[in-house]
UniProtKB/TrEMBL annotation:
One of its GO terms (biological process) is negative regulation of DNA-templated transcription. Residues 17-74 form the 4Fe-4S Wbl-type domain. The Fe-S cluster can be nitrosylated by nitric oxide (NO). The keyword DNA-binding applies. It comes from Kitasatospora viridis. One of its GO terms (cellular component) is cytoplasm. The gene is whiB. This is Transcriptional regulator WhiB.
């Protein structure tokens, strides 16, 4: 069942991952931690409402509604720090 607000979820006693887990995980730095946070959102009953709200607010960063926001835009994957090589390196 998809709920439309945190108040609805609270009234039904639904588990909201961002309230049940350390909130820092939803603002993680490593790609692995970001993917973990996104996976936690998979079972959230307010996932769609969370994503819609984040899009409306143009959230600057973090995982919202199962999507990663960077500078107010949804991106598919978090890239690791550092610059990619310009040329292939022979291994």
């Amino acid at each position: 069942m998809q709920l439309t607000s945190l108040d609805d979820a609270d009234a039904l006693g639904a588990t909201i991952p961002c309230r049940a887990f350390d909130p820092e995980v939803f603002f993680a730095e490593t790609p692995e931690d970001v993917e973990y946070a996104k996976s936690l959102c998979g079972t959230c009953p307010v996932k769609e409402a969370c994503l819609a709200g984040a899009l409306d607010r143009r959230e600057p960063w973090g995982v919202w509604g199962g999507e990663l926001f960077v500078q107010g835009v949804v991106v598919a994957r978090k890239r690791p720090r550092g610059r990619p090589r310009k040329t292939e390196v022979m291994a």
